[in-house]
């Protein structure tokens, strides 16, 4: 058993939770308290009703997610939103969320871990935003077939892709929904861009820019960080841990 305050302090420090800017609604850090104790941590990508129900059913008292309770902004405590809070509070489930701090973490982050999974040797970061760089990059040494095989092994089938060049070249990775940033990505010298999803217009624009793009799924590219946090907390605090898989297909 561990104190919730100690677990939160550790996560806040290691993830630099209070130091990094994020999108409105992220509200990184502890979003909901419990009775102050943790014996079992469960991780998931989204703080959805089905995820919270499953976490409570498993007996977890801490749920760590990438997309938290306030992702859609301020909501009245009605309907499904009320049910989420009621289920968590009755189940003594604390909820901790980490978005960009977990995306960009140099060891536990989604970008870093996905690069590791597919065999990319990271050489630098790119895509600056409010004092941080959102992506990782490196020169791809293999073929297109090698890259595609690595992605499928790491996250499953690719949702969509467009190949603008014969070689992969310099590969940039930003997990999640960064497809709308194709102009900035190309300006950074990236030849092939691996992300989760993006708007329709970004594909023809990428082709015009000479940028190859691979959409491997918003959900699928962002399971790595929360899984890693579960492992870290298990080892540091001797907690049970598990991962709840509820893929969205996007």
Describe this structure in words.
It is a single chain. With 250 residues, the chain is an alpha/beta fold. It folds into two domains: 2-98, Udp-n-acetylmuramoylalanyl-d-glutamate--2,6- Diaminopimelate Ligase, Chain: A, domain 1, CATH 3.40.1390.30; 110-221, Udp-n-acetylmuramoylalanyl-d-glutamate--2,6- Diaminopimelate Ligase, Chain: A, domain 1. It is built from nine helices and 13 strands. The strands form three sheets. The chain has a six-stranded mixed sheet with strand order 7-8-10-11-12-9, with helices on both faces. It has a five-stranded mixed sheet with strand order 2-6-5-4-13, sandwiched between helices. A two-stranded antiparallel sheet has the order 1-3. α3 (79-90) links the parallel β5 and β6 (94-97). α2 packs parallel to α3 (79-90). The chain is elongated and about 55 Å long. The mean pLDDT is 97.
């Amino acid at each position: 058993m561990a104190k919730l305050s100690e677990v939160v302090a550790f996560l806040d420090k290691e993830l630099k939770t209070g130091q990094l800017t994020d999108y409105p609604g992220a509200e990184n850090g502890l979003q909901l308290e419990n009775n102050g104790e943790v014996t079992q941590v469960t991780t998931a990508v989204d703080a959805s009703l089905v995820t919270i129900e499953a976490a409570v059913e498993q007996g977890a008292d801490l749920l760590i997610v990438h997309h938290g309770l306030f992702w859609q902004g301020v909501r009245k405590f009605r309907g499904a939103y009320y049910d989420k809070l009621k289920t968590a509070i009755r189940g003594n489930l604390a909820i901790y969320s980490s978005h960009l701090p977990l995306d960009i973490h140099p060891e536990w982050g989604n970008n870093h871990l996905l690069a590791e999974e597919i065999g990319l040797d990271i050489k630098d970061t790119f895509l600056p935003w409010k004092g941080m760089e959102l992506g990782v990059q490196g020169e791809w040494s293999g073929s297109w077939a090698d890259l595609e095989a690595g992605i499928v092994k790491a996250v499953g089938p690719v949702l969509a892709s467009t190949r603008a060049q014969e070689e992969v070249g310099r590969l940039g990775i930003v997990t999640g929904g960064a497809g709308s940033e194709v102009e900035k990505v190309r300006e950074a010298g990236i030849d092939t861009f691996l992300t989760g999803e993006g708007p329709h217009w970004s594909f023809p624009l990428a082709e015009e820019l000479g940028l190859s793009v691979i959409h491997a799924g918003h959900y699928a590219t962002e399971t790595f960080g929360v899984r890693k946090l579960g492992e870290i907390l298990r080892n540091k605090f001797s907690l049970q841990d598990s991962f709840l898989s509820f893929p969205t297909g996007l």
